[in-house]
Amino acid sequence: MGCYYVMNQVSKCRDDYIGVLNLTTMKSLLSIALSALLLYSCAPEQESLLDVGIPLKMAEYRKQQVSEVVYELSFNIPESKDDSILSLLNLKLNIKDLSQPLYLDFNEKADHVLRVAANGESIKVVHEKEHLIIPSEHLKKGENSIEVAFLAGELSLNRNEDFLYTLLVPDRASTLFPCFDQPDIKANYQLTITAPKDWAVICGAPLKESNKKGESMEHQFGMTDKMSTYLFSFVAGRFETANQNPGEFDMQLLYRETNPEKIEASIGAIFDLHQQSINFLKNYTGYDFPFQKLDFACIPGFQYGGMEHVGAIQYRESSLFLDNSATEVRKLGRGKLIAHETSHMWFGDLVTMKWFNDVWMKEVFANFMADKIANPAFPDINHELQFVTGHYPSAYSEDRTRGTNPIRQKLDNLKNAGTLYGRIIYNKAPIMMRQLEAAMGKKAFQEGIQEYIKTYANGNADWNNLVEILDGKTLIDMKQWSEVWVNQSGRPVLSEDINYDEANQIFSLDIVQNAEDGSNNLWPQSFNISLVYADTTLTIPVKIEGSKTRIDQATGLPKPIAIIYNSNGFGYGLFPINENTLNSISGIEDEISRGYSYLNSYENTLSGSVSPLQAFELYRTGLRSEKNELIIRLIANQLDNIYRKYLTDSERNENQQTLEMDLYAQLQTDLPPNIKKTLFNLYRSVAYSESGKEQLYQIWKKELVIQNLRLNEDDYTGLAMDLAVYEHTKAQEILEGAKAAISNPDKLQRFEFLLPALSSDVSVRDAFFESLRDPVNREKESWVLSAASYIHHPLRQKEAVKHLQLCLELLEEIQQTGDIFFPKRWLTSTIGRYSSKEAYDVLESFLNSNPDFHPVLKNKLLQATDDLYRVQGD
Question: pTM (2 decimals)?
Answer without folding.
Answer: 0.91
